[in-house]
Amino acid sequence: MAKRQPQRERILALLQGAEGFVSGEAICRELRITRGAVWKQIRILRDRGYSIEGIPSRGYRLRGVPDALHVLAADPGIRTDRIGGTILVKDVTESTNEDLWELGRQGADEGTVVIAERQLAGKGRMGRRWASPANRNLYMSVLLRPHFAPAEAAVVTLMAGVVLCETMQEVFHLRPRIKWPNDVLLEGMKTAGILAEMQAEQEDIHFLVLGIGVNLNMSRSMFPRDLRYPATSVRLALGRPVERLPFAKRLLERLDRGYERLLEDGSAPILEAWERYCAHPGEWLEVSTPGGSIRGRFRGLDPEGSMILEEPSGREERIRAGDVVRVYREETAP
Q1: DSSP string, 266-302
Q2: What is the CATH classification number for the domain harbouring 30?
Q3: Is residue 154 in some structural domain?
Q4: pLDDT tens digits, residue range 171-187?
Q5: Half-sphere exposure of residue 161, counting CA atoms within 13 Å on the CB side?
Q6: Do 172 and 240 share a domain, yes or no?
């Protein structure tokens, strides 16, 4: 599905692609709009933090960009094959997953991305709310159309968890871990989450919406008091604010490669990498499932990404859907 860029994004792309000034006349000619319309869009870009110099008879020159995710919509500058061909960035929305779900139903291309600076109804797993303050974090959803059975879709989520850890290590030099199935932790506290929703039939996936939320610059006071699991942000872990734009770009690039590896090589490399980042290898866990709570020792993942839990009786249970709610120390294990 082709989507025409808004005028200001096309103006920004022209300025970013130029070595010096771009005349107002050239912009008018390229976009087929009036000088008044050009000036209006330049003002909007300046209000968003872009440093744009304007000199009569010479035109406009881009001198600096903000740490604003709108840059991704105009000229992302990312090296990807499948993901990011279309990137839509919104100031505010109810939920990026809901927005992309509707685009998926309308036939949007695989790799379409929706990013928001703020979500009013961000969604976490199992119907929970995801706190989404404005201009602080990364709220992103990616549309995928994998050609495999719905039972294998869980591995896409595991792949995204691995990619998140790899990106956080590379960009921020942190040591993240994953709490099954898809919560990324720093120092034992939740920093990022993944929510995958798919439209499928018994044998085929029509499309899958992969939602990713990363707490980047939240302060302690921004977290809701009713969290089920302790949470933190990259800023709190590092003791300083971080730039969101370089992280978002690198995440999209790594996600593109991770998805390509999954399609080409299957789940085995992803599962191996996931277990290297596992936050609870061999630990006793309490897992909340749709059928009730189960306690047992974590024994790894099966080929479809389900948790293998060894109960105190020695019986192994495979859990496809659930949430780790407690990790026991050896001496207090059941």
Answers
A1: -SHHHHHHHHHHBSSTT-EEEEEETTEEEEEEEEEE-
A2: 1.10.10.10
A3: yes
A4: 999 999 999 888 999 99
A5: 31
A6: yes
